[in-house]
Design brief:
This protein is mainly alpha-helical. The chain contains 16 helices and five strands. It is 69% helix and 5% strand.
C-alpha cells in the first residue's frame, strides 16, 4: 500500500487529490478539538454505562469525550445509510428508485441526508439530556436558564454533524476514496494512538504491564492478518458461455466465474448487532438512570450479551447476503447471455445451486465476524480485575479493526485503479 501511495504522488492529478484529502482530514481533526460552547466535557463518556456513546467516541477519534462541535462525527450519516438501505429492500417504491440510475441515486442521497439530519438532532438531544449535569449555565450569560443552554448545545452538535457529512462528501468528490470511510478511519487511528500512549504511560507504575503490551501487539498483528486473508477470500463459481454466430462474427465461447466473497457483508452485521443491543441500554441510562437490571444482565461484558451478539451477527450476515446477492437475478442474467454453470441446468437449478453456495459461504463469514466481534468481550473476561489492561483492548475494537483494514484495502484498490486508468488514457492518446 505504501508503494502504491508513493507511486500515486508521482502523478500530478493524483497528488493533488491526495493533498486535498489530507487537508480536509486535517480540518476534521481540528474540529474534533474545538469545544462546544455551553458544555463541560468532564466525565462525558463512561464505557461501562453508555457503551453506544463509547463506540461513537471511538469512531470520532475522541471528539465526543472532548465534547467538540464535531462530537457526533459520521454516526448519524452511517445510521441513516443503513436505514435507507433497509427501506430500499422493504419498500417496493424505494427499491425501484435505487435501481433507476443516476437520478435515483441522487434522490436516495437526498433522503439519506434528511434522515442523517433527523438522527443527528435526536442524538444531540440524547447526549444533552443524558449529560444535563455537565451544562454550564454561565456559558452564554450569567443566570441563563438550563433549557436555553441545552438548546444551544443541541444546535451546535447537529450543525457539526451535518458539517461532517459535507466534509465527507467533499472528500469523495474532490479527493481519493470514500470520504465517510476515511473520516471513520482517521478517527479510529486517532483513538488507537491515544490508547497505546496511555498504555505505555502505565508501564512507569507497573513494569509487568509491558507483557500486556507485547501480547496485545502480537494479537493485533494476528487479527489484522486474519482479517486481510478473509476479506480477500472468495468462492469462484465457473460459468461457460456458448458460442454464438451473428452475421459473419462469432461471439461467446469464453469461460469466466462468479466471485462470491466469504465476508461480502463487511462490518455491517457487527454494527447492527451492537446497535440493537446497546441502544436500549443508552435509552434506559438517559431516562431511567437508577435502573440497573439491564446493565447487569445485558451489559457489554455479560455472558448473555456475548451470546446474543453472536446470534444477531449470524442473522444479520444472512440478511445482508440476501440483499447483496440474489441467485434468481444472477441465474436469469446468465441464461439471457447464453451462459451456464458446467453440470447445472439453466434456470431454477442454477439459482438453487448459487443459493446453496452463497448460504455455505455466508455461514463461514458470519462465524468469522462473530469470533472477531467477541474477542474484546472475551478478553475483558480473561483479564478479570486487571482493569488497566482494558486500555489496550479499547485501542482497537472489533468494529474498528474491520473498518481500518477494509478502508485501507479499498483505498489501495482505488489508487491502483486510477493509476491504471491514467496509463490507459496515455496509451490511447
Amino acid at each position: 500500500m505504501f508503494k502504491t501511495i508513493a507511486n500515486a504522488f508521482k502523478i500530478k492529478d493524483l497528488r493533488k487529490k491526495i493533498i486535498i484529502t489530507l487537508l480536509l482530514l486535517v480540518v476534521y481533526r481540528v474540529g474534533c478539538y474545538l469545544p462546544a460552547i455551553g458544555f463541560d466535557a468532564q466525565n462525558i463518556v463512561s464505557s461501562d454505562t453508555l457503551s453506544i456513546f463509547s463506540l461513537m467516541d471511538m469512531v470520532s477519534g475522541g471528539a465526543l469525550s472532548n465534547m467538540s462541535v464535531l462530537a457526533l462525527g459520521v454516526s448519524p450519516y452511517i445510521t441513516a445509510s443503513i436505514v435507507i438501505q433497509l427501506l430500499s429492500v422493504a419498500i417496493p417504491s424505494m427499491e425501484r428508485l435505487s435501481k433507476s440510475g443516476e437520478d435515483g441515486r441522487r434522490k436516495i442521497n437526498f433522503y439519506t441526508r434528511i434522515a442523517a439530519l433527523v438522527l443527528a438532532l435526536a442524538q444531540a438531544i440524547g447526549i444533552v439530556v443524558g449529560y444535563s449535569g455537565n451544562l454550564d449555565p454561565n456559558a452564554l450569560w450569567v443566570g441563563a436558564p438550563t433549557w436555553l443552554i441545552g438548546c444551544g448545545v443541541v444546535l451546535i452538535l447537529t450543525a457539526g454533524g451535518m458539517f461532517t457529512v459535507w466534509l465527507g462528501e467533499r472528500i469523495t468528490d474532490l479527493g481519493v476514496g470514500n470520504g465517510m470511510s476515511l473520516l471513520i478511519f482517521v478517527g479510529i487511528l486517532s483513538s488507537a494512538s491515544k490508547s497505546i500512549k496511555d498504555a505505555f504511560v502505565l508501564t512507569a507504575s507497573d513494569i509487568n504491564y509491558l507483557w500486556y503490551i507485547v501480547i496485545f501487539v502480537i494479537a493485533v498483528i494476528a487479527i489484522f492478518a486474519l482479517i486481510v486473508f478473509v476479506d480477500g477470500a472468495e468462492r469462484r463459481v465457473p460459468v461457460q458461455y456458448a458460442k454464438q454466430i451473428k452475421g459473419r462474427k462469432m461471439y461467446g465461447g469464453q469461460s469466466t466465474y462468479i466471485p462470491i466473497r466469504v465476508n461480502g457483508s463487511g462490518v455491517m452485521p457487527i454494527i447492527l448487532a451492537s446497535t440493537l443491543l446497546t441502544l436500549p441500554q443508552m435509552i434506559i441510562s438517559i431516562f431511567w438512570p437508577h435502573v440497573t437490571w439491564y446493565q447487569e444482565w445485558l451489559g457489554t461484558n455479560s455472558w448473555l450479551y456475548i451470546v446474543l451478539t453472536a446470534v444477531f451477527i449470524l442473522l444479520f450476515a444472512f440478511f445482508y447476503a440476501k440483499i447483496t446477492f440474489d441467485p434468481n437475478d444472477i441465474s436469469k442474467r446468465i441464461q439471457q447471455q447464453g451462459g451456464f454453470i458446467p453440470g447445472i441446468r439453466a434456470g431454477k437449478p442454477t439459482a438453487d445451486h448459487l443459493g446453496k453456495i452463497s448460504g455455505r459461504i455466508t455461514f463461514f463469514g458470519a462465524i468469522f465476524l462473530a469470533v472477531i466481534a467477541l474477542i474484546p468481550s472475551l478478553a475483558f473476561k480473561a483479564i478479570g480485575d486487571y482493569t488497566n489492561a482494558s486500555v489496550l483492548i479499547n485501542a482497537f475494537s472489533a468494529t474498528g479493526l474491520m473498518i481500518v483494514v477494509s478502508v485501507a484495502l479499498e483505498l489501495d484498490k482505488q489508487l491502483e485503479a486510477q493509476m491504471l486508468m491514467r496509463n490507459y488514457k496515455g496509451f490511447l492518446n
